[in-house]
Write a structure and sequence with these properties.
This protein is α/β, with parallel strands linked by helices and 416 residues long. The protein is built from eight helices and 28 strands.
Length: 416
């Protein structure tokens, strides 16, 4: 079963910086046990379990990069007029070495005939009376692909911890592989807390609302490669939450909840965690999303996210997703950020990191300007659907003026 080391739970402060939380995760989270072999067709998004050494050279033989004429460049020392002899298409091998003083018609991808070392592009030569006139200026090896140019046999083709994308799968296929060893998926037990929440599709009471967080967090966790078990909605009762945490710890690698982690009288998640497990921290110096609880039950990591959906989204992307990556054996890297120009003015408190929802608007000069969503509330789901990403404002920043360069973190290809 996955574990966080005891050192992760030594923090005794009341408010933790985002970077400190991420440092705990990176330092003290051990990957879950278990690997499996999956076919390449099923390996997209999985995490490679071990370094992959290339079983062969790629390409496996020297070949032509263009349609043209293969020659021995030294034959051109006495002139640039060679006899046309032979023809090689892709998939065909030369029956004999290239005769001296000749040029062999060759096509893209065809193996170079023994003795040939250079290819002239067909549009650069003249053919007349069975002879090929070649222009000056080419260097030896021009327009050819050396054996092993892409990767040499026994070299490391892919590193353990790589989340496999279509391009990694293509490389594996080019090396002749049909399957890869990957980490098993992290098993996540997910539930929401809140007596006011009901399942979508059921009638609403007079003071109830539909639970959107489980749909949100399940989709985010699956995009991060996890296998998610939906454990439903729990009422605001500490005994029920304690029992659910203990039960989920038996067959999951991570427990993920939303709601009930603030300090109110009806917020019972933190108390339940302290009763049945150990709490690492429960407040982050972040907006939105300050109430975030992290701990473990029976050695199994637990993260309790805020109940407001925007806060749940932001804290999942910035804290829970890196934890999932670490548990899954994936190399944990910070989400990419890019400089853009702020098209808004904003003031913030010192000492906390803030994330502003923005949409990017291209300007005629080609620059991208970040426009802040007009409504800031952590419960405004449309502030996520109407924006492209987040602008990150560091702890020591007090304000943003229109025209300033800020750090932009896109949802797609970054936080999701």
């Amino acid at each position: 079963m996955a574990q966080l080391s005891d050192d992760c739970f030594a923090f005794g402060g009341k408010l933790l910086a985002v970077d400190a939380a991420l440092a705990l995760i990176a330092k003290d989270t051990q990957p879950i046990d278990g690997t499996e072999h999956v076919a390449l067709h099923d390996a997209d998004g999985r995490v490679l379990a071990a370094d992959l050494a290339a079983p062969m050279d790629l390409p496996p033989f020297r070949n032509s990069a263009v349609d043209g004429y293969a020659v021995r460049l030294s034959d051109l020392d006495g002139g640039a007029d060679l006899l046309a002899a032979g023809r090689l298409a892709a998939g065909a091998a030369a029956a004999m070495p290239l005769p001296p003083g000749t040029a062999c018609r060759i096509f893209t991808g065809a193996a170079m005939p023994p003795g040939a070392d250079t290819v002239f592009m067909q549009e650069d030569v003249q053919l007349a009376a069975g002879r090929v006139r070649l222009p000056p200026g080419l260097k030896r090896g021009a327009n050819t692909r050396p054996q092993g140019e892409d990767i040499a046999a026994r070299a490391t083709a892919l590193l353990a911890g790589t989340r496999l994308r279509p391009q990694e799968l293509a490389l594996a296929a080019a090396l002749g592989l049909t399957a890869l060893g990957v980490r098993r998926r992290v098993r996540v037990g997910l539930f929401s807390t809140g007596s006011e929440l009901v399942q979508p599709g059921t009638p609403l009471g007079p003071a109830q609302q539909y639970d959107s967080n489980r749909i949100l967090l399940a989709a985010l966790a699956r995009r991060a490669g996890a296998a998610v078990t939906d454990l439903g909605i729990l009422p605001d009762r500490r005994d029920r939450i304690e029992a659910a945490l203990l039960a989920a710890s038996r067959d999951h690698d991570l427990m993920l909840t939303s709601g009930g982690v603030s300090a109110g009288e009806e917020d019972h998640v933190r108390g339940a965690m302290q009763a049945v497990g150990e709490l690492a921290f429960w407040r982050l110096a972040i907006k939105p999303g300050r109430p975030v609880a992290m701990g473990r039950v029976a050695g199994v990591p637990f993260i309790g996210l805020p109940g407001n959906p925007v806060a749940a989204f932001v804290t999942f992307a910035l804290v829970a997703r890196p934890l999932l990556m670490a548990l899954g054996g994936e190399a944990v890297r910070p989400a990419p950020a890019y400089p853009v120009t702020a098209a808004f003015t904003y003031r913030k408190k010192p000492g906390r990191r803030e994330y502003v929802r923005v949409r990017l608007v291209p300007r005629p000069d080609g620059t991208l300007h970040a426009h802040k969503h007009p409504v800031d509330g952590a419960g405004i789901l449309t502030s996520l659907t109407a924006t492209d990403g987040l602008v990150e404002l560091p702890e020591d920043m007090l304000s943003v003026q229109a025209g300033a360069v800020v750090r932009y973190m896109p949802y797609s290809g970054g936080l999701l």
